[in-house]
Amino acid sequence: MGEMSWSGRQGVAVPPGARAMGDPGATGRFGGYGGRYVPESLIPACHEIEAAFRAAWGDPEFRGRLDTLLRVYAGRPTPLTPAWRLSRELGITLLLKREDLVHTGSHKINNVVGQALLAHRMGKERLLAETGAGQHGVATATAAALLGLKATVFMGERDIERQELNVLRMNVLGAEVVPVTTGSRTLKDACNEAMRHWVSSVDDSYYCVGSVMGPHPYPWMVREFQRVIGEEARAQCAAELPVGVPDYVVACVGGGSNAAGTFAGFAGTTARLVGVEAEGGAAATFGRAGVLHGFRSLVLQDEHGQVREAHSVAAGLDYPGIGPEHAHLRDGGRARYETVNDDEVVKALLRLARTEGIVAALESSHAVAWVIRAAGSGEIAPGSTVMLTLSGRGDKDIASIKELL
Amino acid sequence: MGEMSWSGRQGVAVPPGARAMGDPGATGRFGGYGGRYVPESLIPACHEIEAAFRAAWGDPEFRGRLDTLLRVYAGRPTPLTPAWRLSRELGITLLLKREDLVHTGSHKINNVVGQALLAHRMGKERLLAETGAGQHGVATATAAALLGLKATVFMGERDIERQELNVLRMNVLGAEVVPVTTGSRTLKDACNEAMRHWVSSVDDSYYCVGSVMGPHPYPWMVREFQRVIGEEARAQCAAELPVGVPDYVVACVGGGSNAAGTFAGFAGTTARLVGVEAEGGAAATFGRAGVLHGFRSLVLQDEHGQVREAHSVAAGLDYPGIGPEHAHLRDGGRARYETVNDDEVVKALLRLARTEGIVAALESSHAVAWVIRAAGSGEIAPGSTVMLTLSGRGDKDIASIKELL
Amino acid sequence: MTGSVEEFLTARRGTGRPLLVPYVTAGVTPDWTNIVRAYADAGADAVELGFPFSDPMLDGVTIQEAAGRAIAAGTTVRGILDEVATLDAGVPLIAMTYSNLVVQRSVAEFCAALAASGLRGLIVPDSPLEEAGELADAAADAGLDLVLLAAPSSSRARLREIAERSRGFVYALTRMGTTGERGEISEGAARLGRELKELTDRPVLFGFGVSSPARAAELAGHADGVVVASALMRRLLDGARPRELGAYVASLRRALDQGAR
Amino acid sequence: MTGSVEEFLTARRGTGRPLLVPYVTAGVTPDWTNIVRAYADAGADAVELGFPFSDPMLDGVTIQEAAGRAIAAGTTVRGILDEVATLDAGVPLIAMTYSNLVVQRSVAEFCAALAASGLRGLIVPDSPLEEAGELADAAADAGLDLVLLAAPSSSRARLREIAERSRGFVYALTRMGTTGERGEISEGAARLGRELKELTDRPVLFGFGVSSPARAAELAGHADGVVVASALMRRLLDGARPRELGAYVASLRRALDQGAR
Ligand SMILES: Cc1ncc(COP(=O)(O)O)c(C=O)c1O
Ligand SMILES: Cc1ncc(COP(=O)(O)O)c(C=O)c1O
Q1: What is the ipTM of this complex?
Q2: So which residues are the signal peptide here (chains C, D) (predicted)?
C-alpha cells in the first residue's frame, strides 16, 4: 500500500454533468427497447407513477429529502477506494466505487429509498418487491420500516435456500417474504409473481421494482435513482485522477441497475463502458429481442420464444433479461457487454478479499473477474485506469461459497 | 419521518477539542487501574509498541495515512442518523452514530487499521488477534490483507459456533482461525491463548488487541484509535443540535472500545456518559478489582479470585472484565454503567429494525435497550437528546436470533 | 365458417342468447383439439386458444400449470398452428398469448401465420393500447381481429379508445387480478359492462373469475357474454376428459340461456 | 527448616550439586501434599507450589489442565494454605500464582498469609519489574522471597535490575513461550544463564521446557539448576502416583548430579 498516491479528497459536490442517458419520454423507449407491456389493469398505475415521479424529480423538496436520507441514513457518498495491491499485480490502476459500504450492503438501497419516498408521497401503504439475491428485498424491507410502510417481498424458493441470511434479515425487519414455487423458482418467477400480486392490490400497494426493468417509468426511474453512483464516482475521479476520467468504467449486470447508474455518470465522457454478465444469464450476449416483465429488450429464450432459466452462482444475476437501456447502449456501441463464468467469479472474489481485504458480493465479483481477465490478456492496456462499481458486499454469499474454499 | 428536522450537514472537520481522556503516561495507569501485568518476556515488546505508537501518533505522515485509509477505505466519516420513528415513540431525540456502516460492519476496523499500520511500520509480518463476536477477527483479517500481512485469529469454540459467518469471512480473507478449546471457550480464553501465542512469536508477530484492554499501551492506544467515533459525533452534534451537545451519550461496553472512543469525544462536555453492559458480563456493576489479561481493572470473579465466565446473547460482550479507563471513569463518576438482559436486547434489536430499518448488532442493541428502558421509566427525561453509538451491524447475529423471532 | 370473429359473434348475439367463449391451453393434452370440438358441440360461440408461454404474467396458478404442462410436452407455436389447420370447429378460434411469442420474428409474420392456419382472432394481454399499434395493423392486414382488454381501473377516456380500437369483441375484466376462480368479482364489473355497452355496439364479454354457471349467467346480464377459462382448465388438470369438459360447457350454456330468459 | 529460600538454596549450591526445584499444582489430586513430600524425599532442593488460577496466561496446556482440575475440585488459596501449614517437607516451598489471586484483598495480606502457613517464596509471572514494587515490599515485610523472572528478550539493563531485585533465586526462562515440554530450548538460554551469572551471586535456575533428565543436566551446566513443571504434571495427569513422581524427580536428581561431575 502507499505506492499509489491518493489525496483522500472525497465526497465533493457532484457537478451538473453531461446527461447523455436522458429521459425516454412518455413512451419509455430506449431506441426500440423499453415500453410498457403490461395488462390494461396496470396501465393507470404506471401512468400515475410516471406522473408522480416526474413531479417529485422536479421538486426540490423531494430531492432534498432523498439526498438527506441517502447521506444521513444510507451513508452516502461512498468512497472510491484504490485497490492498491491488486492494481500493482495487474499493472493497472483499479478504483472501486464502494456500494458495499452503504446501508444494507448494496446499491439497491439507493433506488429503494427513492421509490419508497415516492410511494409514501403517493399515499401508498405497502411496498411490493421481487428479489433474487435478497438485497433488493432487504433494501425494500428497510425502507418500508423507515417510512412506516408494510412490505411484501416475492422470492424464488431456490433463492430462499441460497440466500437464507437475507430472508432472515427481511423477517427481522418485519417484511413478509412470499416463496415463489413456479418456474425456475428464481428471480424471473419472483418478478411474475410480484406483477400478479400488484395487479390485484394496485390501489394501496406500490410495486418497488429492483432493477432497470419493468414497464415505463421503472427502467428510467431506477436508473435516475442509481445515477448517484455514477455522478459521485465521476466527481471523485475528477478530483483524484490526473486525467479526470478513467479509461474504463465497469459494472456487473443483472437487470442492470448498478451498471446503469454508473454509466449514467460517465456516458458523456470518453470512458469505455463495460457491463459484465454471468455466462449463464448473459442476455446482452446470448439474448434475442423479446418482451418480458413489461418491457422489450434482449431476453434469453429458446428458438420458440420460451424464456430460458438463467444460471449463475450469483443469485442477483440469475435473470434472463437485461434492462432496455442496456440493449440500446449495446446496439449503439456506447457500452459493451462481456461474460464471465462462475469459476472465474469465485476466484476473483477470493483474490480481491486477499489482496484488498474487501469481500465483494458474487454479483460484483463478476466485474472484478472481467477486469482480472482483461488486464491479464492485455485487452485492458497496462497503465490503464479502471473505475469499477463494487455493487455490494459478500456477506450474504459466504455460506454459499463455503464449499468452494 | 420528517417531523424531526435534519439538515444533513455531515462529515464536517473534527475540531481539536477538549481531550479530557488523556495520556496515561509511561506506567499506563488510569487512577489505580491499567498497568502492564505481563510476563517479563513480553515487556520489551510492550515497550517497543509504546514507543512506536508515541512516535507514529505524533507523526503527521502516519496520521495522514491513517486518516486517508479510514476515509477512502473504511468509509469514514459515518453518518449520525436520527432515529426518526423510535424517537417519536420514546418522546426523546435519539441520534445514532452509525459504526454499522464502516467497512466490515463494526467500529473494530477503526482500531485495527491503526494497529495494522503500526505493525507494518514496525516491520512485523503477522497480526495476532483474539476475537469474540468475530468482528475484531474479521477486521484484523481485513487489515492484514490490505497491508499484505499474515493474520492468525484466536476464537473460542463456542463463539465459532455462534458466529459461523464471521469465521467464514476470516477464511475468505485468508486468515487462519485457531479454535480455543479451554475454559469457557469464549473471548476470555481466546485472549489467554493469543497472549500465549504472542509470547512465543513476539519477534515477527504483532498482537492486535481488539478492545481497550491488555497491557499498556493497548488500552490507551485502542482508545485513541477509536477516538474518531467520538470526535466525529461531537462535531456532528455541534453542527446539528440546537444546543450542540446531547444530554446523554450512550454506548455498549464489552471490553469498552467503542464506548471509550465515543466518550473521548464528549468527556470535556456536559453530556452524561453511559456505558451499557450485558447483565451476564457486567464487570463495572458486579466486578471487583483484579488483574486479567495484563491489566488491573474490575473483573467478574468468585470470592476466591477465580474469573467467572461471562454469559450474554452477544458474543462480543461475553467478557468478564472492562477496560481499565472505564473502571476509572466509573470510580470518578464521570461515566456510569448500566446493565440490560438478553431478553430486552433482542426486543430492542427487533424494535429498532422495525422502526428505523436498521438491524444493529446484538452488542449495540444493549445500548438501544437501555435507552428504551430509561426513556420509558422517565429516567431519561422527555425531550432529552441521546447520542448512541451503534457499534456494528447485526448480520452476524441473524442466524442466532432466528429462533427468537 | 367464414367472416370475422366480430361478424360471427355479432350475428350470434342477434339470436338473443348470451355469448359463451370457453378457453383451452393448446397442447395441454395430446387430444386438446378434441376439447375444442367438444366446446363447439356444447354450444360455444367461439373458442379461446391459449398459446402457452413460460412467463404468463396475467395468469393465475391454474392456467400457469396448464401452460407449464403444454410447454413440457413440447408444444410450440408452429405445432399448434399445424394442428389448428386441420381443425374445423365450426366456430371462430381466437389465439391468446403474450407479447414475447408475438414479436419473435415480426408481428406481421406472426399474424399471417395465425390467419393462414384458420385462426380468426388474437388476444395479447400484455399489449395494452399504447403498445398495440403495430400489432393492430398487422392483425388487420392478416384479417385477424385483435381483441383488447378493458379493466375496472381504466378511465372512461381509455375505455372509449379501447372500445373503438378493439376488434372481435371487447374483453372486459371482471376484476383487478389474474385469471383464476378465486377472488370476488369486483363491484366495478357491472359498471364496466354498462360503460362499455354505452360506448360501443361491439360485443362485450366478461372474463376472469367466471367460476360457475350461476356466475356466468349473472355476469352475462351486464354485457353480451362471458369467457370461461380457469374453471375449465382446473377440471382438465383434475383429469376431466374432452367429453366431460364439453358437458361443463353445456351446463354454462344452459345457465346463460336460462339467465337470459 | 529455617532461613530464607535464598539462604537455603545458596547453602545447597555450596555442596556443588545443581539445584532442582520440581513443581506441583496444589489441589490437583486429593493427596497432592504427598507429592510434595515425595519430591523432597527424592532430592528436591525446594518445591514450587502452583496456586491454580482460572486464566494462567503463561502456562501451556499441561499446567492449564492441572489448574483446571484443581479448581474444579474446589481448591482455594485458603484451603491450600491450611494444608501447607501441616506439611513439613524439609525444603522451602515457593508459591507460584498469577496477580489476580495476589491482589484479592491486599498484597500485604496475601504475603502474610503465605508466610504464616510456612511458605518461603513467591513467584508471580504476570508481575514484572514495573508492577512488582508494592508486592516486593509486602513480601519482604512478610519474610517471603519474591522470585523474579528473566527472559531471553530482556535487555542487559533489565537483567541487571531483575538480578538485583529478585530474591530466593532468579528464574531464567529458557525460551520465549509458555510452560510446557514442547518447543526447543532457545539458543539464547545459554547466553541468558551466562549473563545472569555475571550479574549476580544469587542462584540462577532455568525453567520452562525442562522436559527430560538429559535436558535438565544440559541446562544446569549454564546456571545453578532447574525448575521442572510440565514434565511432572503430564505424568500426573497420565495417572502417575506420588511415588512414581518421586521416582522421576530422583531420576532428574541423578542426571543433574552426574552432569555436574
Ligand atoms: C450486490 C448486487 N449487485 C448486483 C446485482 C444485480 O442487479 P443490477 O444489475 O440491477 O445492479 C444485485 C441483485 O440482486 C446485487 O445484489
Ligand atoms: C458490534 C460490536 N459492538 C461492541 C463490541 C464490544 O467491544 P467494545 O466494548 O470493545 O466496543 C463488539 C465486540 O466484538 C462488537 O462486535
Answers
A1: 0.94
A2: none
